[in-house]
Structure formats: structure tokens, C-alpha cells
Amino acid sequence: MTPPMGAGMSTPEALALAVSPAALQSRLRDLAQSVRGMIRGREGWLVVISGFVGIASGLSVALMGTISDYAHRVLFGLQGERLSAAPQIHQGMMAPIIGGLVLGTLTLLWMRRRAQAPIDPIEANALHGGRLSMRDSLWVTFQTLLSNGCGASVGLEAAYAQMGGGLASKLGVALRLRRNDLRVLVGCGCAGAIGSAFGAPLTGAFYAFELIVGTYSVANVAPILTASVVGVLTTRALRAVSYSVNLPTAAPMALQDYLVMIALGVMCAALGVLIMRMVSWVEKGFELARLPRAFRPAVGGCFVVGLALISPQVLAAGHGALRLDLPAKLGMGALALLIGLKILASTISLGSGFRGGLFFASLFLGALAGKLFAAVMAAYVPSIAVDPTICILVGMATLAVAVVGGPLTMSFLVLETTGDFAVTAIVLAASVVTSLVVRETFGYSFSTWRMHLRGETIRGAIDVGWMRSLTVGRMMRRDTETILGDAGLAELRRRFPLGSTQRVVVVDTDGRYQGVALTAEAFASADNPDEDAKLTAGAIAHWKDTPLTPDMNIKEAVAIFDRSESEALAVVDNRENRKVLGLLTEGYALRRYAEELDKARQGLAGGA
Q1: What domains sit in the chain, N to C, each tagged with a CATH number?
Q2: Of 203, 128, 201, nearest to 458 (Cα)?
């Protein structure tokens, strides 16, 4: 019998062994295995884990908000007010330029070590089963804090979601959770972060449902909502919630108000698409100017400083400016000027290389757009009475839907801000229409648009990673029968009698693909000896220009089967060499696709 660890040792020796790195690592592995077993056995344990994720997300949001506020006070000499609410900036006008230079230099050094762009939670859940690099998450958080802290016109919400998702993913990987559980846990981290930032648990939860996990189901509602509530309670306990909107009570609404607000939503959809495209136009402008990448944020900082000299409200995310402008009596010219300045500042900041998000900027711009819409209606269409409060709320929600996505997310943000269900109903109607217009005319939110510019094709966080990992190379058969293209049909019949195989891959003397010959056709030509003697295997070969390659995923392969109307296709190494590697049948590909799709559906529904 093996004696217990530490047997025969003195107390100090046994204690030293118990706290050694190897012993701690072993105990942590045992603990992770126990927790993993509990989560597999009972879904309730995932809810418990999500509570801890919510605490971590709330703490990270509070810490980042504190760092950002401190940086603004130190760099710009603020005396308690928010940066974007300062009447004028007395110091720190060089901060965006110097911060941009520091950020550009550090980003260049980072890219030399890690060429791949950091993965955000949406991409992680769509393509990588919820796996996020903690190192990349810390880097994105640092970039965002530096950008926002030096006054660039970006928000911190991207860093909040990145860090919340990163912490959750790190915990889930340590516990070796199943793919779907890990994806839900990443959603919990983002829900806790966004809910904490806005003090709105339903907003955080539906942000995760719509944007991070990509679906709402009974299986994921409990852990995600738990994480969001716990995150909000954490930041409230620390008094770290920075979002607040004070508006007068909205007037009662009539049917025509729905139609007018839907029109406002369509206008905000167009404005949102313009903002997203402007970011890519600015990036292309810097590319055409051939500026070194390290200097681009500094040049962008110069433009931001110039815009801030006109109005400091363009600096940072705009929390202070939103509180300042909502009750203020601003004319149409002033509102249009502020909207234009903020759009320029945000798009130049992001396009030049500053890191951050447009979540709060879209809320701020939407509020101004709604206020401008109400002023225009009052001046030029006085017969249609619109309530400015409703216009502001609809503008906020719909522009955020256009840029960020998530009509339910923004509708719940309005509900939790106002507590008015009647207003929420009209906001939801306008948000749904806005989402539909953007999806039909543009097709992307800001996050997925940025991924599209990098070459990705995903439109949301729905899990398609399994589809990409199910490649032709994994499914094909390698024991493929081949024959030379100049071989006669008599030889083909001799080597492959009826019943031995249905098809033979035709190759040249160097093994390059020339098509697929059907043995039934070879035997059918035997009834005409004169014609049969003239034919070769290459002459009766089909699908010469539609081979598969090993790196194609199942979706691409099925599409090629559809177009070629073939039951089997050869697999070649690449389009240039065309060396035959194997064969894939349509029946097997469809069966594997159906199996994996069924697993994915079970995951969405909470199945095993």
C-alpha cells in the first residue's frame, strides 16, 4: 500500500511539500475536474460559476472606469466634471497626439511579435468555440484605455466586453468546459460587463443573447442573466456606474407617432451605415497617404485636437456631453454642428488606429439626431406634433441598433432608463425596422463590418466554427481508384469490373487530376466495338473543372456538389498542382453535415 504524501516527514517538510508548485497544480487540476463534473451533471452549477464571472466583470468595469476618469483629470486638469462636458480645455490638448504616438509605436511592436489581430468575443464565439486569448484581451483593454484616456473620441465598452469575455473564457478553459458551455460563459462575461457599465441588467443580458451568443434559449438565460445582475450589483456597491439619463416624462402617444418614429429609425439606419463606412474610408485614406502605421494615431490625434478646439464634446465617449446636451436648448444649427463634429472625431479616431468602440458614441449621436429631428418637425411640419423626449429615446436606440446591433438590447436599455413601457414599445418598433433596414442594405454591425474588412465572412456570433473545422480533408476517402487518362475503355473494364466500384478518378502520367469516369458508362460503350476502340478513360471523364481541395469546409463542398450535380468529387492538393489526394461522396458529406448541425441545435436548446 502506498503511504500518504508526506508520511514520515516532519511537519515543516510536509507543509513545504503541500504548498509546493507541483502539489498546488495537482490540487487545482483535481478541483477543476470536480467542478467540470458538477457542471456536466447539473446545469445549476453553471449558474453558480456565472455569478463569479459577473463579479469579475463588474470589478474590471469599475477598475477601467476609474483609470479612465483619473487619466482625464490628470491630463486635462478637470475639476470634477466629465471630459466631454468641460466648457473648454485649459491643458492637455497635446494628449491625443502624444497618446496616439505612444499607441502607434506600441502597436507596431506588438504586431511584429503577433501578426494575427486579436480576437473579440463575437469572433471567438462564432469561430473558436468561445476561446479567447487572455494576453490579447489585456492588450485590447490597454489600447482602449490609452485611447480613451488621452481623449480620443472612443468609448470603453469594447474593452469592457473584451475583458469580461476574456476572464470568462480563461475560467472556462481552465475548467475544460464543453464547447457550448464555454460559449455561454463568454456571454456571461460580456453580459456582466455591459450590464455593469450601464447599470442595466436586462441590457447586459440581451447584449449577450443577441450579439455574443447569437441566440436566446432556456438553457442560457439563467447563467447570463445571473452574471449581468451580479455584475450590476458589484458596480453599484462600488458606486462605479457612469451611465445616467434624466429626461422629462414622455407625453401620451398616438398611432401616427409610431409611423413618425419609424421614419426617424430609417434615417438613423442611414446615418449608422454612413458612420461605419466612414471608418473604412478614413483607413483607406491613411493607406493612400502612405503614412507609417506607427504615426497614424498621432496624426488622427491632431485632427481630434482641431475638432476639440471647436467643441470639447467630441472628446472621449461623450458621457458628460450627453448629460449636458439633453436638457439644453440648442438650435438646429448647433445640433447639426455637434453631430458632424462627433462623427468626424469618432471615425477619424478609429480609422487612424485608436482602439475603442462606438457603443456610447452611437447613443450620444442618436440622442442629438432625435433632438434635431424634433426641432425640424416643429419648425417645418408643425401639424405633426412630436414629443422631443420620445424622439431623443428613439434616436438613441435606433442609431445604436444600426451601429452596434441588438434591437432588444437597446429597447431594454430605454426601458431600464425610463421605466416607461409605452415608450419602450415604440422604441422597439422603430428598432426592429432599423435593424431590418441595416441588414437588408448593409448587412453588418460595426463589429462584424470590421471583421469583414479583415476578410472574415461571419455576420454574427452564431457558432459556425464547427463548420469550418469540418473540412474536406477530414472527410475524404484516401483509398481512391485511379486510371491514366489515355488508357482505353477495355483496360478500364478489365481493371474495374461491374460491381467493384462506381467511379474511377482519371489522372495523367504525373498523377494530376483529369476528371472522374463512371464504370457504368465504360461498360455501356462495349456494345459498339468500333466506337469503343476510339475512346479513352479521359474521353468519358466528367467534372474536370470541379475538384475539391482539402481546406474547403463542409458548406463550400456541399455548394460545389449542388452546382456540379455530382454524387462524388475528387479531392486535389490545390488548383495549380491538381495532385489527387482522395474522393468525397455527396451522401457522406451531407450525413456528416446533418450530424454536426444536429449537435449544434442541441447545444442551442440546452441539450447534451
Answers
A1: 24-237 (no CATH), 255-460 (1.10.3080.10), 466-605 (3.10.580.10)
A2: 128
